[in-house]
Amino acid sequence: MRSSSIVYLSWKALRYRPLRSLLLIGTIALTLYFPRALQEFINRSEEVLSARARSTPLLIGPRGSSIDLTLNALYFTSQELPALRYSSYEALSQKNYGKTIPIYSRFLAGQSPLVGTSLAYFKLRGLTVSTGRTMTRLGDCVIGANLAQNENLQPGDTITSSPENIFDLAGVYPLRMRITGILAPNRTPDDDAIFVDLKSAWIIEGLAHGHEELSRSETLELQRDSKGEFLRANASVIEFNEVTDTNVGDFHFHGDRGNYPLSSVILVPHNQKQRALALAHYGDPVTAEQIVIPAVAVEQLAKTLFATQRLAFTAFTLLGIAALALALMVFLLSFRLREREMLTYSKIGATGRAVACLQGLEVLVIIAAATILAQAGIVLTRSAAQDIFTRLIS
Amino acid sequence: MLASTSLISSCENSGNQANPDLSPTGKPTIAAVNYPLAYFAERLSAEFAEVLFDPSPGTDPAYWEPTDNQVSSIQQADLILLNGAGYARWTSSRTIPYEATVITSTSFEDAFIKLQDGIRHTHQRGTASHTHEGVASTTWLDLMQASAQASSTAEALIEQFPEHSDSVSRELESLLTDLGDLDRQMRTTTAALRGADLVVSHPVYQYWTRAYELSAHSLHWEPTQELGASEMSELAATRTEGASARYFIWETQPSQENLDKIKIAGFINIVVNPCGGRPRNGDFLKVMRENISSLNQGIPQGASTGAVEP
Amino acid sequence: MLIPEFRCEAGQTIALVGPSGCGKSTFLNLIAGIIRPSTGSIFIDETDVTTLKRSASAAFRLSRIGLIFQEFELIEHLSVGDNILLPYHLGTDTTRSVIEKRGRDLASHLGILPYWDTLPSALSHGERQRAAIARALSTRPRLLLADEPTGNLDPENKRKALDLMHLTAKEHDQGLLVVTHDLELIDSFDTIIHFEELNQSGKQLMP
After folding, report:
1. From the CB coordinates, do chains C and B have 3 or more pairs under 8 Å?
2. Are residues B129 and B167 in the same domain?
3. For the residues of A298-327, what is the DSSP string, one character each?
4. Fewer Cβ atoms within 10 Å of its own Cβ: the N or the C terminal residue of chain A?
């Protein structure tokens, strides 16, 4: 029997029952896909987690869960730990272990995390501004590529921070921020974040504000308190919730800056020795801060996460076996239904081998199509895993 | 003019440059917030770096507000020299890379002079009252403090560019010698002012008067403002009985009319330029020498009342 | 079943008659080599088909024997044309163009050419029967074995189909062995054999 004829006849048979063929292809494809896709997803997620953790050499933050600290600094998850004092950051900087990058990831604008940091963060993460430029003053922000695309935002547009509590009576106004630049995508949580100067985050915190010159007598009232007589700025003193060219000079900070809050500090040690010194210094339980090696914290997290997922993997494998058995049954039933057809081939003069080839090729085509489909799905999963994982964790 | 003007335009697209930290000449850039620091940096790093100091002559860098483009240029600098002591308020409202900044006055921050001219106020009923207190910021007019700031600048340069440590150390030695000489001359010259009525047109001489053991009454006058009756009575109120002499210190050369009015009021006009901004002519040393010369010219021969330091 | 001797000469047309279940179809399958006799020989031309291996027997059947089945046995997912071309697809020596030309001529003669690209399910019983006849004749077999080939045809098509079989048998010197119980048609055959007389076992294969 000619091989071209085998292909032709098999193709005709498959096309005659498209639903059966597609069902078989789909069932087998899914059976092949799920366990492998899960494996791929886990592997890729682990890579993504590790890569971001590895590019964050050391993390200094308040004592508490090292995983919470790491996730907040790396994935801008909600801040679960108490704040780190700015004086800790200054002390760390003075020790000169390496480059220090402050992170204050507490606020949101809509659903997007708002990250107060320094320009060095962009260098650390290899982030470049694709449109516009980095922030230059208080109230400026640079936003991630996804956020810009999803919300159709451009440099020059504004974005407003969300109040943490709508009944916030402390008078902390949301800050309307000027978008100065859009970051090039780097397929990390940075793509969905809003970056501001640390000082801008403090404005949102209510630690800095702008007001008109207070020497204007009509805005002042004489009042007394325990410290004596003082002038109270009355309601005609404008509290700014937006930094503009004209009021930028009026913004000022109150209180001891050493008490200002941070979430954590990324430390990029100058060298191995400085790294060891930093680890030794903060490793001492007496210090108020803890030092975390994000790669180690992430490894712990991965172990926990992936132990749970191993269960899912087992479930998928069992499901897969069941589905394969089902597919086998569908094949056998289909052969049974076509027994008469095969007999006709035999009677007309097809050899047993030719009949076997005809049936075998059909099975082969279905398995091949299912494999290709599953493989395509796996490739897609692999490429999308990073984004999916990033979204899931953030 | 500085190379910084060309930097501003070239740095707008700095994101696309191969190495954004390098100036168009390929040299690293050092930004400074005032002219004394820019001068120190120029002296110390002339061989290998370019200094970025944008405020044009005639502008007071303490109140300078940079444009976004200028901030962008400063962000690209390898080193940003801050004066500290609250000088240049723009630095707290603009985004500059924390890790590239060096506060040059840290070594003597305990000696900062606190100012008490803020108004205590509150913003909302029930919230804590506060004043915008500050510290005097013209630190370099105490030339020993200027030396400390120069040393601080040199340290930062050596840390950032260790390959140039020899030349920086060499230049620092020469700069410290110059500043030391100036300090001695200033000390010698100002000795004659001790015990005299000293009125300064602006509150920028706090460190100068402290360093050279002077006592001054500070006004808020501009060299070009018209001095009317109220100003003259304000000046008259500063007079103390039995003063050996009366001097009025201007920041820059005032109008002839103002010079005359001050002279009629019994004060000797002297210009002591704090040199916060880039001078139109000469450099920091020349301006300081001119200040000493101006003092020497203003102080009558034999007017010395205080002990002259060796 | 016990057949002492049976001969069909080239070009001879034989009608095999007998009641249902007497073993006529089994006899055709024996001749075709689809099933094997327990003893004895079946020669087609010079070849004893009982000695052929299964694959050789299939190849022999494909090139030398045309089969028309009682239930047509058309492949449901192949068009009429592809069904007629099936011997080519299954590996007969004749080229596709020759088989296709013959097939189209036969289909035209049998009035089913318009259905060349149509699936059998869309055809009437008679049209399917004619397609099965065209398939069997397309290889010009040495021996044409037909099991009730006209059972589903109207009188006109019955006559037409039978005439065609007779014509090709004479024209190409083919043996034609037709199992039928349509007594109206058997006149046209050279020989009429009562299967019960041929079968010496005295047993009916099926009740």
Report:
1. no
2. yes
3. HHHHHHHHHHHHHHHHHHHHHHHHHHHHHH
4. C
Q: Which two tokens stand for residue A327?
A: 């597919």
Nearest neighbour of A135 by CB, restricted to B95, B98, B127: B95
Residue numbers in A near B121 (CB within 8 A): 214, 220, 230-233
SS3 category, A170? coil
Domain boundary, last residue among B153, B184, B215: B184
pLDDT 10s digits, A16-61: 888 888 888 888 888 888 878 888 888 888 888 888 899 999 999 9
Residue A124 CB-density burial (10 A; 0-12 exposed, 13-18 middle, 19+ buried): middle
If asked whether residues B166 and B198 sit together in one domain, one would say: no
Q: Determine the structural domain holding residue C125 and report its residue range.
A: 13-198
Q: Which of C58, C69, C82 sits opposite A349 (nearest CB)?
A: C58
Host domain of residue B245: 190-298
On whether residue C4 sits in a domain, the answer given is no
Q: What is the CA radius of gyration of chain B?
A: 21
Q: What is the pLDDT of residues B142-170, one digit of tens each?
A: 999 999 999 999 999 999 999 999 999 99
Burial letters for B10-44: b for 16+ Cβ neighbours within 10 Å, e otherwise?
ebeebbeeeebebbeeebbbbbbbbbbbbbbbbbb
Supply the CATH number for residue B175's domain: 3.40.50.1980
In a domain, B280, yes or no: yes
CB-closest option in B15, B65, B123 to A211: B123
In a domain, C186, yes or no: yes
B120 and B72 in a common domain: yes
Closest CA to A152 of A131, A134, A127, A126: A131
How many domains does chain C divide into?
1
Question: Terminus-to-terminus CA distance in chain B, angstroms?
Answer: 39
| Neighbour tally for B302: CB within 10 Å | 7
**Is there a contact between A349 and C90 if contact means CB atoms under 8 Å apart?**
yes
C-beta separation of A370 from A24 below 8 A: yes
Q: Residue B39 corresponds to which amino acid?
A: Y
**Alpha-helical regions (H) of B161-274:** 165-190, 206-211, 229-236, 256-264
Q: Is the pLDDT of residue B280 over 70?
A: yes
Q: How many domains does chain B contain in total?
A: 2
> Is pTM beyond 0.80 here?
no
CATH number of C93's domain:
3.40.50.300
Q: What are phi and psi of C203, to 5 degrees?
A: -110, 145
CB contact B9 to A (< 8 Å): no
Is C76:A338 a contact under the CB 8 Å cutoff? no
B28 — phi, psi (to 5°)?
-65, 160
CA distance B65 to chain A (A): 8
Whole-complex ipTM = 0.88
- What SS3 class is residue A132? strand
C-beta separation of A29 from A377 below 8 A: yes
C120 close contact with A: CB closer than 8 A: no
Q: Is residue C207 part of a domain?
A: no
Coil, strand or helix at C129: helix
